[in-house]
User: Which sequence fits this backbone?
């Protein structure tokens, strides 16, 4: 896998171990602890330029809801799973901890290096990490489940993402996407999917210490299946 070495990722970011529990299991995640410098840089550059802000350093609430939902599905232990736009990789790592064969993907090299660190930290031998560029995908494998949380935030990704699904999803497989209800780009994307797909959308509520998050789950299946 290309990207920074584990040594470099520890030098580049101030990392801290964060315990997270889902479904009766607990994993330890190296997370970025120096958020302040990114926020200060954003304040200097202005909110109009978010292109360099590392949104992947956040544990998105949608990823916890997606993980809990998939673990509740009583999946076949041999189901192959692809996580796209993984960021911190919460869903992929927990599914791997429960014994499912998972491929976790992202485009950012720093993300990939951190994912490798977290896979090694938790000894997840059924989890692999690889780089994936939706605009130039090079995956040759098909999967039973493709999943992702907060993955679509630009319309430029709509068509490439649909092409990826058509190429990498097995005929009887399914796609599960999760996002905060306030982040409507995914909802707009769902509306562009071709009629070959059946879509089941449901709302989940995640209550935190200080606020409640409404998370949309979209489960997508090919009608041919």
Assistant:
């Amino acid at each position: 896998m290309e990207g920074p070495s584990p040594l470099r990722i520890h030098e580049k970011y101030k990392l801290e171990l964060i315990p997270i529990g889902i479904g009766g299991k607990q994993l330890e995640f190296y997370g970025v602890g120096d958020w302040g410098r990114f926020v200060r840089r954003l304040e200097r550059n202005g909110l109009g330029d978010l292109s360099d802000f590392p949104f992947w350093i956040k544990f998105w609430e949608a990823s916890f809801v997606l993980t809990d939902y998939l673990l509740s599905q009583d999946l076949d232990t041999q189901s192959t799973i692809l996580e796209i736009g993984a960021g911190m990789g919460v869903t992929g790592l927990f599914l791997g901890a429960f014994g499912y064969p998972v491929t976790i993907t992202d485009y950012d090299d720093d993300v990939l290096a951190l994912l490798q660190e977290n896979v090694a930290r938790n000894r997840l031998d059924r989890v692999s990490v690889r780089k994936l560029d939706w605009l130039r995908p090079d995956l040759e494998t098909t999967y039973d489940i493709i999943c992702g949380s907060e993955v679509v935030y630009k319309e430029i990704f709509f068509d490439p993402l649909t092409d990826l699904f058509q190429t990498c999803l097995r005929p009887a497989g399914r796609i599960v996407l999760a996002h905060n209800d306030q982040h409507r780009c995914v909802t707009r994307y769902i509306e562009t999917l071709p009629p070959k797909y059946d879509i089941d959308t449901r709302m989940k509520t995640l209550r935190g210490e200080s606020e409640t998050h409404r998370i949309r789950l979209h489960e997508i299946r090919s009608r041919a299946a």
